[in-house]
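lol forgot to send this yesterday, sorry. struct tokens for the thing we talked abt
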């Protein structure tokens, strides 16, 4: 059997991905880059949600070639990350919070090198992205079953929502995104270049958030935060313009 060339492999992969994206739905944030880190495939939704543009304006360009002033830091970080991912055999996951065209939102980016198994050569980079919802998926599933079974939804009697400090806003957002204390400390340290410990984050919960929300445990805190609508809020601007590797922090 004749081995396919690396370029043929990449071309066939692009066609296959395009068929999959257009068959299932148009909400897939998918992109492919070649070994020069130029985009060779960009889904409509990726181009729109990330860059506020269309695929034709992005194809055959690298992140460094793109002229989107509000995303200059994003493009520079992405280029540096891609160089590292290309030299790795494994998928790498990043949490990115930038002023994307769809607004200031957290987006998960999974990046992995594309390997032609026939030749063993790397031919490019695959990118799959999706918006990180602060609302825990498990809670949504439980709520869906409650509706199906006719279980009355627990109602929390609410007073006006408490005012949160910038640090409390950070911790709240990451907590609702299902990160544990150690992960929250790790992420904030990467953003701010500090050395915040897990015990410090635990104290924010126990001595500040529990008091402000009048609860005694994280389950009750989570329920109240969701009831107040904190899970629907965009991330605070003090978390903006950051790209953090979270490969070992959460199972995507």
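and heres what i got for the seq, position by position
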């Amino acid at each position: 059997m004749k081995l396919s060339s690396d370029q043929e492999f990449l071309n066939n992969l692009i066609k296959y991905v395009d068929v999959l994206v257009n068959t299932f739905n148009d909400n897939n944030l998918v992109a492919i880059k070649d070994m020069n880190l130029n985009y060779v495939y960009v889904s409509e939704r990726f181009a729109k949600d990330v860059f506020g543009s269309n695929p034709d304006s992005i194809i055959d360009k690298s992140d460094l070639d793109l002229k989107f002033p509000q995303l200059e830091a994003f493009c520079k970080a992405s280029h540096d990350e891609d160089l590292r991912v290309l030299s790795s055999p494994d998928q790498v996951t990043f949490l990115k919070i930038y002023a994307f065209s769809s607004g200031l939102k957290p987006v998960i980016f999974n990046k992995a090198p594309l390997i032609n198994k026939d030749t063993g050569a790397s031919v490019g980079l695959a990118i799959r992205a999706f918006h990180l919802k602060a609302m825990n998926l498990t809670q949504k599933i439980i709520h869906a079953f409650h509706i199906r079974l006719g279980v009355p939804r627990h109602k929390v009697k609410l007073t006006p929502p408490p005012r949160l400090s910038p640090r409390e806003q950070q911790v709240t957002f990451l907590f609702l995104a299902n990160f544990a204390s150690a992960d929250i400390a790790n992420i904030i340290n990467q953003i701010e270049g500090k050395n915040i410990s897990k015990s410090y984050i635990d104290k924010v919960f126990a001595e500040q958030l529990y008091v402000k929300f009048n609860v005694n445990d994280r389950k009750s805190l989570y329920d109240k935060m969701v009831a107040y609508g904190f899970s629907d809020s965009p991330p605070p601007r003090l978390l903006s313009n950051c790209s953090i590797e979270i490969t070992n922090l959460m199972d995507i």
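The domain at 137-232 is CATH 1.10.10 (Arc Repressor Mutant, subunit A). anyway ping me if u want another try
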